Amino acid sequence: MALSDRGAAIATAPTRGDQLKHVALYPLDWLEERSGLVGGIKYFLFRKVPRDTSWFHTLGSATLTAFLVQAITGVVLAMYYKPDPETAYASIQFITNDLTLGWLVRGMHKWGASVFIILMFFHMARVFLFGAYKYPRELNWIIGVLLLAMGMLEGFTGYLLPWDQTAYWATVVGINLNGTAPVLGPFLAQFLSGGAEIGSDTLSKFYSLHMLVIPGAIIGLIVLHLYLVIRLGVTSPPWSDEAAGRDRGEPPPPKGGRRGLTQPKPRGANGQ
Amino acid sequence: MASRRIEERRAQHKRYKEDVEREGKPFFPYAMFHDTVMSLVVVCVIIGLACVWYFTAEGTEDPGWLGPHFTPEADPGTTDFVPRPDWFFYFLFYLLRIFKWPDTVVLGTVGVPNILLAIMIALPFIDLRRERRLSRRPVALVAAIIVVLAMGTLTYKGATAKEALGSELKQSVPHWAAVQGFEDNPDAVAGAEIFAQVGCANCHTYLGSGSSNLGAPDLSDVGASNRGADFFASYVTNPSQYGNNVMPPFAGLGEENLAKLGAFLDASKGPKG
Predict the structure, then answer these.
(1) Separation of alpha carbons A77 and A88, rounded Å
(2) Residue of chain B with shortest Cα separation from A266
(3) Do B154 and B111 fall into the same domain?
(4) Full DSSP string of B105-134
(5) Same domain, yes or no, for B185 and B245?
(6) pLDDT band at residue B222 using 50, 70 and 90 as cut-offs
């Protein structure tokens, strides 16, 4: 039995190249066998998208990039920031004036926030104008609205952290605004300010919300958002003649060669 | 009818999946190329903004092109600092000036934002047609234009809105004294100057000056009830002992100033005639 196996192995002796390939890919095979992750990533990368997707469809990933910039710069800031009224302002000054490239990290976080919010609005406008919130993508639209709300809450809670006059007084007004809400308002305002005056309790609460609670919620919602994007697919531009899912009776997609790097020749174009 | 619509849209999505499978392009490298370029642009824009902000401004003094590095350290004792939210809350900030009467302020703070949120969440259930071309979605198009114009206008107005500054308000004190008839009461006049300078008018209105950001009442005739200067001084010292948890305590002003402020408020019986 063992002998004949060895014989077969010699008969179809793998070349050196095959052996090297096997060794090189072994970690991937190991991972795939135990998790299926490799197949998942392959599916993600090589899944088909409508052939007429364009620059309009990059706003979502651009928003994700802005969020990642916020996450990375935020982690760095958290290493040096001190969420305490006594030291917060000094720590921001230290980050801005003394820490190597600290100004860049803080500047990117400060301005990345605005870019993130603007891109969310642009992305939302694109989805609205394309009618991409319609069946079966309703749920993903709702998740997007929640992400927008969470993003704005990040803006609100992060605004206090530098503990300068602008931050402090804008937050006083913000908390008082919450307080005007019927029924829940006073409780919310009481919880946020954590006492009669805005002080160390408020700052730690805002810090915790800003860097743990809301980002956690945002990451969870983004995962759901992307899952639904991959599962349902992205919509073609509504004006496209070759939109995926177009009503038949409309003209078929034009046949022909490649039109540049980003528009491959359609598979079925050879008269099949 | 409804079930036909459901069948139609299911069929369309099935067709979509088939079309994508047959005619589509793989995400990598085609769509990913676009995404990568766009992401790089985003990162460059963020770095660019950070650099412009940092290199054109200086500390707390020089705002540069994009604003100062920081304003002075937070000081709960100051009362003449004009609150300013981040730009994406300007629309809300300005809504409060529209709904400035105490009874309606809740519309601006809670009503309009939550209604907008509810409409956004409900959108896919309101607009049930399959049609996606804008030329055949006039209602959606008009709604989009209105929302963009409204948000743009509110944001612009919020950005350019000017709060009454203490130094400007102080010039109104003689006018107030004349209208209210407390010119002969030096304590009340001194109190009026304190009122103008310590930021009471950031939340309250007085004879048409100030703003009612938080639904705080107009104080033009607050003294009409004849509750006495001591009552007002005590109220302002710590409003929460009178059940007012919205207004912050102003004990930091000191007893002397509070007594004058109380005299001013008590003398404010409302414009004569």
Answers:
(1) 12
(2) B23
(3) yes
(4) HHIIIIIHHHHHHHHHHHHHHH-------G
(5) yes
(6) confident
Omega of the bond prior to A136 within 30 degrees of 0, cis? yes
The CATH number linked to A99 is 1.20.810.10
Residue B264 near residue B222 (C-beta atoms within 8 A): no
Contacts of B74 (CB under 8 A, 6+ apart): A85, A89, A163, A164, A165, A167, A168
Q: Poorest-confidence range of A104-113, B15-24, B234-243?
A: B234-243
Q: What angle do CA B195, B269, B235 make, to 5 degrees?
A: 50
Q: Mark whether B177 and B250 lie in a shared domain.
A: yes
Domains held by chain A: number: 1
Q: Residue A233 and residue B102: Cα distance in Å, rounded?
A: 49
From chain A residues 200-229, the ones with a CB under 8 A of any chain B CB are none
Query: A-B interface: how many C-beta pairs under 8 angstroms?
Result: 279
Q: Could you tell me if B200 and B262 lie in one domain?
A: yes
B156-179 pLDDT, tens per residue? 988 887 665 555 677 788 888 888
Question: In sequence order, which ranges of chain A are alpha helices (DSSP H)?
Answer: 2-11, 16-35, 37-46, 59-80, 88-97, 102-129, 138-160, 165-179, 185-193, 200-208, 214-232
Q: What does the pLDDT average to over B206-217? A: 73
What pTM, to 2 d.p., does this model score? 0.80
What length is written for chain A?
272
Question: Residues of A with CB below 8 A from B69's CB?
Answer: 96, 103
Indicate the length of chain B as a whole number: 273
Sign of the Cα torsion A219, A220, A223, A228 reads negative
Whether A47 is in a domain gets the answer no
Summarize pLDDT for A154-187 with one digit per residue, the tens: 999 999 999 998 898 888 878 877 777 778 877 8
- What is the rounded CA–CA span in Å between residue B124 and residue A267? 34
